Amino acid sequence: MKHPAGSVWQRPERAARGPAPEYSRARIAAAAVAVADAEGLAAVSMRRVAAEIGAAPASLYRYVTSRDDLIDLMADATSAEFDLSRPATGEWLDDLIRLGHQIRGIHERHRWLADLTPDKVIPGPRTLDVLEYSLSLLADLDAPAQAKMEAIVMLGAVITIFVRNQPAGTDSTQADAQRRAAGAGYLATVLAKGEHRHLAVAVTAMAAAGAASAGQDEAQKRSAAEDRLLRRVLSGLLGQ
Amino acid sequence: MKHPAGSVWQRPERAARGPAPEYSRARIAAAAVAVADAEGLAAVSMRRVAAEIGAAPASLYRYVTSRDDLIDLMADATSAEFDLSRPATGEWLDDLIRLGHQIRGIHERHRWLADLTPDKVIPGPRTLDVLEYSLSLLADLDAPAQAKMEAIVMLGAVITIFVRNQPAGTDSTQADAQRRAAGAGYLATVLAKGEHRHLAVAVTAMAAAGAASAGQDEAQKRSAAEDRLLRRVLSGLLGQ
DNA sequence: ACTCTTTGCGAACACTGTATCCAGTACCGT
DNA sequence: ACGGTACTGGATACAGTGTTCGCAAAGAGT
User: Fold this and answer.
1) For A182 and C2, how far is CA from C1' in angstroms?
2) Which positions does the record tag as DNA-binding (chains A, B) (predicted)?
């Protein structure tokens, strides 16, 4: 066999025989996360991460069978930032919203998470713990297990949308910002032609709302609006 | 200036002077879409698309300034497949669901659409037409324009999730399927350890539902379940 | 007919992920 | 104690990738 089968998580981190590894998955993942936080997911190349920890590029493949594996490691590393200690309060919607706030915080710390395709990442142990915790918040709710799962997936998806539509603190990559601006420019020229009546009013409405939330405590208003939207979606999915 | 500024859509397709272009954006986009349909988005490289239309790799850059531009072209090309002729019926929820069915159909024909990051693609003219049409379906509904926009974005996002969680007809790439299987394997070993009670019941429930929809007319049931979920989400967002 | 702009393209650059091979090392079973 | 074994880190190489540059040819406008 060429590669030891299965995901990163099934392979033992340390081999039975042979010299002690010089690095570790955790250290590699941390380095990769740091690079992604600072320069975006595209900057996370095997060579870059290897250089960051002082290793040769090919050495990483002793810890990881592919770049996808590395990204699995990164994703699970962020899942470790959840606080899963707070038990269910009995108000499942509030609990879910609170969980949403955690997700949002983590997404803001690691904006590259929004670039991941959720179902291409193999969930690691910490991610599965988060999933278990999320479901535990809904344990007392009388709903089919499938609906609960859907609601949790939805929670993540909606928050991803929130984060994406939020102007990045330090604007992602310069090229990305340029593309965004180009898109806005084209939209303006199309709207100026006068067709697209409904789109025009929607765009101006959204622009007004965006300008309103430019202030600092206006960010709270935006957050409140997001909470309201989340409540609607979740209670639409799970509510009676 | 190095590059003519702005998105693909603002630049004129044909230059005023000089020889007539040998190819066209439409033809390039069509070739790229064909490649993506058959072999996935990763197979869409400049060299590949160029070869497909019988051009040299560097020639594509006369029509497109980057691969991102090419993908903009591809995305907008799929938007042309919408039927925007059917006017609003007065039942906005039904109209939205019908629109959802169109989205779903297009996503099934072009599974790579699920790999796109929606807000990194600059919407082209056809996509803006679809947006205008979508909003027109909600014209008579008394709701803030922003909420309507959110609902439409949500509609697309939910359907993307549907499509992703659907076993691909001809399974995407072989490597992708292998990773999926690896993930399932790891999940099984974790669940076997006995912790993750809630996750265990959820997973078995989803597996049972998945097995049930293996049959042919059982696919209709799944579709019905999706419609129900969509209705809940949308009426949760826009309903009174 | 002449000029200019634009086209198509060969070649090259700076990357990327990854496989292969090799020397050295530390454990295991004897 | 000591092979043999299984591992480690790494140098090198390969097949791709997106993209740029410079240049010959060719069509449109004057």
Assistant:
1) 39
2) 45-64
CB-count exposure of residue A228 (10 Å: 0-12, 13-18, 19+): exposed
Average of per-residue pLDDT across B18-45: 95
Structural domain boundaries enclosing B72: 8-79
Of all nucleotides, the one whose C1′ comes closest to residue A61's CA is C18
Distances (CA, A) of B141 to A204, B85, B147, B235: 18, 20, 11, 12
Count CA atoms within 13 Å of residue B100 on its CB side.
29
pLDDT in tens, B124-156: 999 999 999 999 999 999 999 999 999 999 999
B161–A contact, CB cutoff 8 A: yes
Helices (H), chain A: 25-39, 46-53, 67-79, 92-109, 125-136, 145-164, 174-192, 197-212, 218-238
Return the amino acid letter for A184: A
Together in a domain, B231 and B139: yes
Q: Is the dihedral of CA A21, A23, A26, A32 positive or negative?
A: negative
User: Integer distance in angstroms from CA A187 to C1' D26?
Assistant: 36
How close B21 comes to chain A (CA, Å)?
24
Please report, rounded to whole angstroms, the spatial distance between the CA atom of protein residue A137 and the C1' atom of nucleotide D11: 52
Cβ within 8 Å, pair A186-B131:
no
Last residue of a domain, one of A25, A55, A79: A79
Q: Is B126 on the interface with A (CB under 8 A)?
A: no
A-B contacts (CB, under 8 Å): 153
B46 touches strand D (CB under 7 A): yes
In this structure, the answer to whether residues B103 and B206 fall within a common structural domain is: yes
Cβ of B48 near strand D (under 7 Å)? The reply is yes
Is the CB of A15 within 7 Å of strand D?
A: yes
Q: Which residues of A touch B165 (CB under 8 A)?
A: 119
SS3 A18: coil
The angle formed by the CA atoms of residues A130, A231 and B147, to the nearest 5 degrees, is 125
Question: Is the same domain home to B37 and B156?
Answer: no
For B196: left if phi > 0, alpha if psi spans -120 to 50, otherwise beta; the answer is left
Using a CB–CB cutoff of 8 Å, tell me whether B26 touches chain A. no
B55, B28 Cβ separation under 8 angstroms: no
- Kindly report, residue by residue over A189-217, the tens digit of the pLDDT: 999 999 999 999 999 999 888 777 666 67
